[in-house]
């Protein structure tokens, strides 16, 4: 753990929440070391925990990205947390939720005066083309018991040695802000608050209400991209998203096709 970072403090996180955020919270746990905050809350969800449960950790020993990829969370160097939510909407009405999670985290960073944060579809948090954070949405249960777990991993101050294991350009908040004494408890409160506020709004508006928010953070619009699909690939110009959160890809003949799905990855071509 970096000597300049203080430990996550549950009482201070609670105190930093808005009244509305606190009211929506059913549980707030800070656990020093976990395999994965998503796994922890998914197990809780399966055991019947109500929505509004949040779990934070100092270190994930088996942090996960999308499609079985690894997410590195060295002790005390990140903000790693998950939120369990039970939506009053059927699963098929949750299209775009993973983008919305990215919007919430990007907005929370903006609220802390972090400039230049953007999103790469569907939900990579980026700064000047480097990866600052990742988001993993998982769901389970059926009917009344259906739940979603939204996991967020954000680099605060990664030890350079640990960063060597990451196989793509990355960045942390220490470098972006020039501040090595970030108050992670305060930042965590802001993020949890924004995430809860955003999920409540999503419940009412669906993704349609967030297209403009997305446009404000979209870092790939009008860029040449390649989509890696479960069986193949597609190239073209990224033209933003539609009302479901699908990426709009313009082919060479000018035709625009929406692409949606948790197995799709986007790569910039230029
Ligand atoms: P996609 O565009 O499909 O999301 P991705 O490769 O960025 O692709 P993620 O699931 O978002 O996939 O994140 C996992 C990847 O992120 C890892 O394979 C690794 O390259 C990178 N990574 C792992 N830990 C970190 C970290 N702490 N900071 C930045 N990048 C990381």
- Tell me roughly what share of residues is in helical segments: 25-40%
Tell how many strands the DSSP assignment holds: 12
What characterizes the major β-sheet? 7 strands, mixed
The rough form would be described as globular
Q: CATH topology of the largest domain, what is it called? A: BirA Bifunctional Protein, domain 2
Q: Architecture of the largest domain, according to CATH? A: 2-Layer Sandwich
How would you state the average pLDDT, rounded? Answer: 95
Q: Name every ligand kind in the structure.
A: adenosine-5'-triphosphate
Unreliable sequence segments: none
Order of helices and strands: HHEHEEHEEEEHHHHEEEEE
Q: Please identify which CATH superfamily of the largest domain we are dealing with.
A: Bira Bifunctional Protein, Domain 2
């Amino acid at each position: 753990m970096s000597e300049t970072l203080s430990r996550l403090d549950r009482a201070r996180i609670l105190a930093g929440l808005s009244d509305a955020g606190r009211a929506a919270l059913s549980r707030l746990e800070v656990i020093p070391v976990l395999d994965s905050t998503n796994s922890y809350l998914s197990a809780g969800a399966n055991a019947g925990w109500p929505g509004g449960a949040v779990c934070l950790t100092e270190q994930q020993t088996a942090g996960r990205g999308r499609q079985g990829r690894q997410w590195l969370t060295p002790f005390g160097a990140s903000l790693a947390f998950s939120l369990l939510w039970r939506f009053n909407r059927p699963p098929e009405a949750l299209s775009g939720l993973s983008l919305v999670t990215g919007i919430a985290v990007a907005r929370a960073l903006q609220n802390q005066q972090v400039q230049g944060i953007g999103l790469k579809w569907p939900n990579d948090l980026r700064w000047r083309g480097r990866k600052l954070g990742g988001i993993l949405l998982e769901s389970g249960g059926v009917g009344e018991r259906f739940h979603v777990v939204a996991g967020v991993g954000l680099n605060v101050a990664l030890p350079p040695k640990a960063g060597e294991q990451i196989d793509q350009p990355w960045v942390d908040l220490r470098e972006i802000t020039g501040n090595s004494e970030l108050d992670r408890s305060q930042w965590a409160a802001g993020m949890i608050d924004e995430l809860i506020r955003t999920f409540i709004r999503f419940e009412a508006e669906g993704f349609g209400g967030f297209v403009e928010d997305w446009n404000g953070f979209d870092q790939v619009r009008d860029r040449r991209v390649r989509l890696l699909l479960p069986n193949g690939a597609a190239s073209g110009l990224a033209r933003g998203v539609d009302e479901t959160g699908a990426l709009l890809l313009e082919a060479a003949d000018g035709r625009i096709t929406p692409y949606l799905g948790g197995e799709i990855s986007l790569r910039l071509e230029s």
